[in-house]
Every structure is written in structure tokens, then in C-alpha cells.
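Batch manifest, entry 17 of 40.
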Amino acid sequence: MKTYQYQEWIDKAVELFGKDSRNWKFKCCNCGHEQSIQDFEDAGIETPDNKVFFSCIGRWTNGEGTMGNKKSPCNYTLGGLFALNEVEVIDQEGATRKVFDFGTPLFSLNQNDNGK
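Output type: C-alpha cells
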């Protein structure tokens, strides 16, 4: 299990995807679907920042995948009976939160571009 402190997790997301959190990718630990806040917004899903790292987008878009059927996207959430996550974050209050792992970065940031 990989455990991040909250700020360390945010810093890692910025390192991988840049400063715009709408572009941060998270990978569903059940079906492997990679998703961002922007994907949730494009699908018209409310409060995506609370869902993108915790539930597969298929939960709101009629995804056909389930625990037994890994079709992507699926309806899996870390709030269910079976937690498949390999990453957790200790939030600012000290509580441990289950999260999806980061997805694949689309680009590589270097020291000179400042996440732009």
C-alpha cells in the first residue's frame, strides 16, 4: 500500500499532470479506466472533485462493468464492501482516505515550464 500525506499527494499530481487539477488522471483499480475531473465535467457529473479519485465514472454514465466484469468504465467505488485500492492519503485532519492511483501522464513536465 502506498501512503501519501495530503500535500505530498497534491505535489505528486502537479508533478505528473501540471497545476490544473481538471487534468489530473486517476485510474480505477477495478477496470483500469483512467479519468479526470474534466472527463466528469464533460459528462455533466456534479462535484467531480469529490468523485474522480474514489469512484469510476461509469457509476454515473451507465458503465456496464462490475466487480465480476471488468468492462471499462465500470460502476466500482471505493466506498463499497471491497476496497481494491493500493493507494491511500492521510488528509489534513489525519484521517486515512482510500484513493485510486494516478493515471498515465500525457506529458512530461520539466523544471522550466512551471506546469503550464
